[in-house]
Specification:
The protein is an all-beta fold. Helices cover about 0% and strands about 25% of the residues. Among the domains are: about 220-390, TolB, C-terminal domain (Neuraminidase, 6 Propeller); about 400-480, no CATH class. It has helices at about 350-355, 460-465, and strands spanning about 10, 205, 210-215, 220-225, 230-235, 240-245, 260-265, 270-275, 280, 285-290, 300-310, 320, 330, 345-350, 360, 365-370, 375-380, 385-390, 395, 400-405, 410-415, 420, 430, 445, 475, 480-485, 500-505, 515-520, 535-540, 555-560, 565-570, 575-580.
């Protein structure tokens, strides 16, 4: 990975193991990839057919199958030497020999092919032994490394890279490992469903994880939220409603009888939030709210209009999020691919008092300006607001390589911690990958060709941090990030707590296509990204999508168990990702 000084590049040309045995999944046809109304947009809304999306079939959850990347980077998602700039439609384009490959999310046994090197079992277990470099199940003992969490009798071959917590790290035999005895510090119940629930077809998750269809038959599901009782609220764009989904029978699936219409309103299409005794949802022109108590499965009182007169046309989604003081933040995207100014490309804020009485858009505070389409908004555990941005399309600058659209501008992860900051659009854009000899590295700021000669918005102006707040992470162009979520913990490995998950809806005007996945951005203990981006859920075939991968991830939420939920508008499903850890 490169760090230009302006931020971190997220190189997603990673290779993870194709899970076999129960998770090699097949699906239906993709959506049309049609663009949004108006000019070309990286957030191209889909009108994909609703349906089950994933039919039952063979394959296995990724609990330690065979196959996958040989050699590659270090286990446990570590970053090795030589990681470089990458594209998200294949391997890394620069220096991928010892980069972010290998065991992408936890170094589970079976993530490497037999003989390729050591592999550590995700969770300890009993009487599973294997020789050097062998492939093993994730719940067995170590092949060439100890189990990550406790268990008895797990013998290991030579060359372990991770000390066991219930077996030793090199040589046979059992005994207390470096992390403390048979019980193990990572012990937690499995959050995967029973064998009666088919795994997500043709999907790939890291070893030790599982993915399945949690709910199907939805009509263009977009935003998603989970209330404090564990009920799941989803905006169905195709039906202009919020549907409430639950799993009362405990089978880890929300079946057709476990859902109801919570509310309907004209034009509901994307944004949703549950906070302070209300549920909020947005249309293109308004933000509505209803009185709602978690667990009641009904609203009370009349629909209230919290915000009115939002600008219409162009990007049509209006993401909403609330802070701890009841202030409401609304994201409005651009009216065209490149607007003449930033007057409608921003995140605005309304106070709790304004929301209570109802406010017009023109009364809002401009909280963050110059944001082309900041679809995903989320607060972290430190109370700071973050956003993911979709960049412009059809970018050309002759002095920077001519047609540079395929890899520029980079999509952005922005920290919105200074009210009133300007983030560059439409005058400036962020480099992801320019030809050798002309680029300055991912995160560098450049002037858009439409403004570079206007006498003000030059390259130098864009590079001046007094003028433009640069992104902290730069991601593959046209991936179309639509949501982000800071993982609170529960189901996954403890070291993922505080990391960010980002949905990549996928490109509609790039060849080869890119995105169509969910990625993890590791954060440090101080709440800042480290740049070691790895896929969590992706297509198991060649490239990023195909006819047998109908999914386009949109919204993110977490169940009380820690299971991650992902809406896919193109396939009409909610996907769940859990962990096999025991």
């Amino acid at each position: 990975m490169q760090d230009s000084g302006a931020g971190i590049v997220l190189a997603l040309g990673l290779t993870a193991a194709v899970v076999t045995g129960c998770g090699d999944q097949r699906g239906g046809a993709p959506d049309s990839n049609a663009g949004a109304s108006g000019s070309a947009s990286a957030d191209a809304p889909t009108g994909g057919a609703s349906g089950t999306g994933a039919a039952p079939g063979g394959g296995a959850y990724a609990d330690g199958g065979t196959g996958g990347a040989t050699g590659g980077g270090p286990p446990a998602g570590g970053r090795g030497a030589g990681a470089g700039v990458g594209t998200s439609d294949g391997g890394a384009s620069v220096g991928d020999a010892a980069g972010l490959g290998g065991a992408a999310m936890g170094g589970a046994g079976g993530f490497q092919t037999a003989g390729s090197g050591p592999g550590d079992a995700e969770s300890g277990g009993s009487s599973g032994s294997a020789g050097t470099g062998a492939t093993e199940a994730a719940t067995g003992g170590g092949s060439t490394g100890g189990a990550e969490s406790g268990g008895s009798g797990g013998s290991a071959g030579a060359g372990a890279t991770l000390p066991a917590t219930g077996g030793n790290s090199s040589g046979g035999g059992s005994g207390a490992g470096a992390m403390g005895g048979a019980a193990g510090s990572e012990s937690r119940p499995s959050t995967c469903p029973s064998a009666d629930v088919a795994p997500l077809q043709n999907g790939r998750v890291p070893a030790g994880y599982c993915a399945w269809v949690w709910a199907d038959g939805l009509d263009t599901p977009r935003g998603i939220a989970v209330d404090s009782s564990g009920d799941v609220l989803v905006v169905e764009r195709g039906r202009e409603r919020i549907v409430l989904l639950h799993d009362d029978d405990g089978d880890r699936v929300s079946g057709p009888a476990e859902r109801l219409t919570l509310v309907s309103a004209p034009g509901l299409n994307h944004g949703i939030a549950v906070d302070g005794g209300h549920v909020y949802a947005s249309s293109e022109s308004s933000v509505y709210r209803w009185e709602y108590g978690a667990g009641s499965r009904e609203v009370s009182g009349m629909r209230q209009t919290a915000v009115s007169n939002l600008p219409t046309g162009g990007h049509q989604t209006r993401s909403v999020v609330l802070d701890g003081e009841g202030s409401l933040y609304v994201s409005i995207g651009s009216g065209a691919n490149v607007d003449p100014d930033s007057s409608r490309s921003r995140v605005v804020r309304f106070t709790a008092a304004q929301v209570e009485s109802g406010a017009s858009y023109d009364a809002a505070e401009v909280y963050a300006d110059g944001m082309r389409n900041e679809v995903g908004l989320r607060f972290d555990a430190f109370g700071r607001l973050w956003g993911v941005e979709n960049g412009v399309d059809n970018l050309e600058r002759q002095d920077l390589g001519g047609n540079i659209h395929a890899d520029n501008p980079g999509e952005e992860l922005n920290l919105l911690d200074q009210a009133g900051g300007f983030y560059g659009y439409p005058y400036c854009w962020t480099e992801f990958l320019l030809p050798a000899g002309v680029g300055e590295g991912p995160g560098a700021q450049w002037a858009h060709p439409q403004f570079v000669s206007d006498g003000t918005h030059t390259d130098a102006w864009c590079k001046d941090p007094a003028n433009v707040v640069a992104p902290l992470v730069t991601m593959q162009a046209h991936s179309a990030p639509l949501d982000l979520l800071f993982y609170p913990g529960g189901a996954f490995s403890a070291d993922l707590t505080g990391d960010a998950f980002v949905t990549f809806h996928g490109s509609w005007n790039r060849s080869p296509a890119t995105g169509y996945k969910v990625v993890r951005l590791p954060f440090d203990e101080g709440g800042m990204p480290t740049g070691e981006g790895v896929p969590l859920l992706e297509y198991a075939g060649g490239g990023d999508t195909a006819d047998d991968w109908p999914h386009r991830p949109v919204g993110l939420a977490v169940l009380p168990s820690g299971v991650l939920l992902i809406t896919s508008d193109a396939s009409g499903v909610v996907i769940a990702v859990g962990s096999t850890r025991t």
